[in-house]
Every structure is written in C-alpha cells, then in structure tokens.
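Per-record layout

source: Rudanella paleaurantiibacter
name: DUF433 domain-containing protein
length: 75
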Amino acid sequence: MNYREIISINPNIRFGRPCITGTRISVYDVLGWMAAGMNIDEILDDFPHLTREQILACLAWAADRDHHVKVVVSE
C-alpha cells in the first residue's frame, strides 16, 4: 500500500495536519482512537465513510515518520 495516495497535507485543512484525503479526519485522530483502545472495526462503525485501507494508511504514515526520526546526542 502506498499511503501517500491516501494521506495528504493541505495547509487549509486542519491547520496542515496530515489527513485522510477527501476528509477532515487527521492521522492524529485515527492514531488517538487506536491508542484509546478502539480497533479498526469500531472506527469503521463510527465512521462508515472510512475504509480499512485508509486506517491502515494512517498507521503506515506513522510508521514511516518514526522510521525517519533521528536522535541527536549532544555532549
């Protein structure tokens, strides 16, 4: 899956937070729901216009972002 086709950043939508394209639902929203204990099926029940692929794209976006984080140690 290429999350770049599903997640977009528009400075005019949600202050430029990464969102599911065509919605105002941010990656942060989805990650927050999952961190609070919701599973994919529960999110889909609450937001039937979303797809499983879109939710997985949010996870892929977060994983890719974490992969590019660099820790700088100062002495």
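summary: Residues 3-67 form a domain with the Arc Repressor Mutant, subunit A fold (CATH 1.10.10.10). The helical segments are 27-35, 40-46, 52-67.
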